[in-house]
Amino acid sequence: MTKIKDLPLLERPIERLLNNGVETLNNEELLSIILKTGTKEKSVKELSLEILKNYDIHELVNVNMEKIIKIKGIGKVKASTIIACIELGKRMNKKIDTINNIKITNSDKVFTYFNDLLKDETQEYFYCIYLDSSKKVIKNKMLFKGTLNYSTVHPREIFKEAYLVGAVSIICIHNHPTGNITPSKNDIELTNNLIKSGTLLGIKIDDHIIIGKNKYFSFFENNLMKGN
């Protein structure tokens, strides 16, 4: 087992970063710096290689605690460090850090924010943006996760939150991990049901936006907000 301290000084990841720049380090060396130490059985170098053997570097974007601690030598502390670094990287790459308190005048800002948030997800997520009378965002909240259909997305949960925050209108957002932004039959039924419920409750559904791979579909822009 080769330990970092056993390597020649100029071959150690931190020394290479300091002398040659971070861009010269390979993925295993970057992970070694993040992990800091290995275990009794594995050096940090071997542990880093073990992670990369289990996950392609791009797959690490979606890694979670349950998955990564299955790798022998990765406990909750090391897993938390890796997950925190990944999340920090995601946030640094967001064009809009938060949508709260932003005035929504078109779909572009909604798409920009949620495309950054959802573009790498492999499951469907359903969010609602709650707006005041001037179309300013009071709050956005993830309400449902998984395969979405007419029965799993409950209007009562959507409108309960609207009453709690004093919203006047709502924009619904969900993603299609396949990248296909064409509304499904369930998407259309759900949207129409929410519009009808909103009319009865006095809270307008302004739009339902489907996020795909760097593109979106707006029910409002396609004149599909029947009843509004």
What does this structure look like?
The chain has about 230 residues and is an alpha+beta fold. The chain has helices spanning about 15-20, 25-35, 45-55, 65-70, 75-90, 105-120, 155-165, 185-200, and strands at about 125-130, 135-145, 170-175, 205-210, 215-220. Strands 2-1-3-4-5 form a five-stranded mixed β-sheet, with helices on both faces. Strand 3 (about 170-175), helix 8 and strand 4 (about 205-210) form a beta-alpha-beta unit. Helix 2 packs across helix 3 (about 45-55). The radius of gyration is 23 Å and the shape is elongated. The mean pLDDT is about 90.
Q: Key features?
A:
228 residues, alpha+beta, five-stranded mixed β-sheet, 8 helices, 5 strands, 39% helix, elongated
Give the arrangement of secondary structure elements.
Layout (H helix, E strand, L loop, with lengths): L12 H8 L6 H9 L8 H11 L10 H4 L7 H17 L14 H12 L6 E7 L5 E9 L9 H11 L3 E7 L9 H17 L2 E8 L4 E3 L10
Parallel strand pairs: 3-4
Antiparallel strand pairs: 1-2, 1-3, 4-5
